[in-house]
Amino acid sequence: PGVCDGVTLRLAGMGDDSIGNMPRGDIHLSIHVQQHPIYQRQGDDLVRLLSINCLDAILGKLLQFETIDNKTLEISIAPGTQHGQTLAVQGYGMPNIQNSYMRGRLLLNINITVPTNLTDEQKSLIKQIVC
After folding, report:
1. Strand 72-77, strand 86-95: pairing
2. Phi and psi (nearest 5°) for 125?
3. Residue 50's CB: how many other CB atoms inside 10 A?
4. What are phi and psi of 112, to 5 degrees?
5. pLDDT tens readout for residues 8-31
6. Which among 46, 63, 111, 117 has the fewest CB atoms less than 10 Å away?
7. What is the pTM of this model?
8. Could you give the 3-state DSSP secondary structure of residue 130?
């Protein structure tokens, strides 16, 4: 767990043994880690885009979503959260290859969406609040 793309692993003594009276060779494995559709990796950290609507950004909200290892994580979006802000959650990134008890962070890049299909009544209510 935690192996990075491009790493070559050496398996000593696991290779060819077809030559008599010679020790087995080694196997060298080149690792290619597939891209994940939601998470990008930065070292031991995982980065994810998290889209929230503008009202949740204004008022704050508790959100639940599944992590890369299928655990449910609940995070608190603070009132006044800004577009482009990054939230960091320690211990939900990738395991460290040197110490599997250590994990990186989950970095949540906030994307604030604005509704585009409001009714005239909804727009009027928002104008009453803002003005």
Report:
1. unpaired
2. -65, -40
3. 19
4. -95, 125
5. 999 998 888 888 888 888 999 999
6. 117
7. 0.81
8. helix
